[in-house]
């Protein structure tokens, strides 16, 4: 799809110099940055929170920050993430006690709203909310770590979503590389997260261009 956007995930980048890594990815042609927040509870790993996002925002004033909130209490971080400069707030359906209220809360802060769906969660869980959100994020790995293999059997979820809503933004996250991006885009995803494939490359620009060429045919 010509309108596919590529958002690198910085999870597997050199986190000791995160700002430079982000700047490098933007210079390499990233359409947006996908920032993975993990709380050690919803997922068995820890990353960073709003204070780090705020520092990144001061270094990168104009880049779109897509916040992937892999946290058990998503309602708890909405204000902080907004104040830190987040553009979107993607919570997981498995973690939301009251999705409708949470969607309202995120919107009231002026952020775009997304709902994430882990591999074992049926897509039916998010169907009631499609009209109220800006994007649905389909996980093609188990959340928690970069560098895992793409789970092909998640494609029917993307296909079903695309069939039910032509205009919906569908984000795919996990195991995207030159071999898997085409199937994800052909299934209907238009926001493509790519972590390891991009950040571990000798030249991220070459990989972003390659990924783009795979979907822009
Ligand atoms: C996993 C994260 C993903 C991941 C993507 O929990 O949500 O964003 O970092 O990285 P790769 O592309 O390496 O699977
Ligand atoms: Zn992610």
Automatic annotation (TrEMBL):
Cofactor(s) demanded: Fe(2+); Co(2+); Zn(2+); Mn(2+)
Binding-site residues, a divalent metal cation: 34, 36, 68, 173
Molecular functions (GO terms): D-ribulose-phosphate 3-epimerase activity; metal ion binding
Keywords assigned by UniProt, alphabetized: Carbohydrate metabolism, Cobalt, Isomerase, Manganese, Metal-binding, Zinc
Domain of life where this protein originates: Eukaryota
Catalytic activity: D-ribulose 5-phosphate = D-xylulose 5-phosphate
EC primary class: isomerase
SUPFAM superfamilies: Ribulose-phoshate binding barrel
Chain positions recorded as substrate binding sites: 9, 68, 144-147, 175, 195-196
Listed GO biological process terms: carbohydrate metabolic process; pentose-phosphate shunt
Keyword flag Transit peptide: no
E.C. numbers: 5.1.3.1
Active site positions, chain numbering: 36, 173
Gene3D superfamilies (UniProt xref): Aldolase class I (3.20.20.70)
Bound cofactor: record note: Binds 1 divalent metal cation per subunit.
One protein family per Pfam: Ribul_P_3_epim
Family: Belongs to the ribulose-phosphate 3-epimerase family.
Protein name, UniProt field: Ribulose-phosphate 3-epimerase
Classification of source organism: Eukaryota, Metazoa, Porifera, Hexactinellida, Hexasterophora
């Amino acid at each position: 799809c010509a309108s596919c956007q590529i958002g690198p995930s910085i999870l597997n980048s050199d986190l000791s110099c995160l700002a430079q890594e982000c700047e490098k990815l933007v210079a390499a042609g990233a359409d947006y940055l996908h920032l993975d927040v993990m709380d050690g509870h919803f997922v068995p790993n820890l990353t960073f929170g709003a204070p780090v996002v705020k520092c990144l925002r001061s270094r990168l004033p104009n880049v779109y920050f897509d916040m992937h909130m892999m946290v058990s209490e998503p309602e708890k971080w909405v204000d902080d993430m907004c104040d830190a400069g987040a553009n979107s707030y993607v919570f997981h359906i498995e973690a939301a006690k009251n999705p409708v209220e949470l969607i309202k809360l995120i919107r009231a802060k002026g952020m775009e709203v997304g709902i994430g769906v882990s591999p074992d969660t049926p897509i039916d869980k998010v169907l009631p909310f499609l009209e109220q959100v800006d994007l649905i994020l389909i996980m093609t790995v188990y959340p928690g770590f970069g560098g895992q293999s793409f789970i092909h059997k998640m494609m029917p979820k993307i296909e079903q979503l695309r069939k039910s809503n032509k205009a919906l933004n569908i984000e795919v996250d996990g195991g995207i590389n030159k071999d898997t991006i085409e199937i994800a885009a052909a299934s209907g995803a238009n926001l493509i997260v790519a972590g390891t494939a991009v950040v571990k490359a000798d030249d991220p620009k070459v990989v972003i261009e390659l990924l783009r060429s795979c979907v822009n045919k």
